[in-house]
Amino acid sequence: MPELPEVETVRRxxxxxxxxxxxxxxEVFYSRIIRTPxxxxxxxxxxxxxxxxxxxxxxxxxxxxxxxxxxxxxxRMEGKYLFQETEEPIDKHTHVIFHFTDGSRLLYRDVRKFGxxxxxxxxxxxxxxxxxKLGQEPISPEFEKEKFVAIVQKKNSPIKQILLDQExxxxxxxxxxDDSLALAxxxxxxxxxxxxxxxxxxxxxxxxxxxxxxxxKGGSTIRTFESFYGKGSMQDHLIVYGRQGQPCYFxxxxxxxxKVAGRGTHFCPICQRL
Length: 274
Fold this sequence. Notes:
The protein is of the alpha+beta class. The chain has 2 domains: about 5-130, N-terminal domain of MutM-like DNA repair proteins; about 145-265, Helicase, Ruva Protein, domain 3 (Orthogonal Bundle), CATH 1.10.8.50. About 25% of the residues lie in helices and about 20% in strands.
């Protein structure tokens, strides 16, 4: 699943080509991707004639801002956007097409069909069920360190599990949680309430550093992720994720892999002692 850096990469890519584009018509080939409104014809009608004003992001959600509505898009496992200047052949995995008045179009492709789209009134996007419960983003200038520390220190579950909870900290997934913990020298099985304020401040800085570097590298192409400008390269700079059996960059010990909260988890047993 794309994490914050990958979704931010998609957002920045889209921003370069669709801002100011006016929708002529919308085609929907797989209706279950559209959740709100439930009437697909209403979805199409609400978007007809609308111009994309800007594109935002909340955690792993993309937000397309129009004059009076906001399209909230979640890519889930395999969702991708493809921009075309002119009409070209489409494949069976193309489920939504936004046709613009200038002849260009934006395609939504999704092999697994898990992605979702919700159209809500402008101003109500923060009340959307998936967004209103989102925790703080590590890269946000408004990130409240003390609030994060207070939440984590009340939990006895593994820190890896805590960081994967989007209601506590948003945008992180398996890849960047592992690398953030490695950079902060914290074992993924450490209980939240065992971590000191100093350790958690170090973790906050590590999360920010890892995410910002991943955004700079265009995200990680571990399986199929790519924006329409190509694949990301962060996978070539990961600290521990996917490197089981290889030497740690910091101490030379062998990277181990275990299961934490049902997720494959990578760490250095020397740098990240339990």
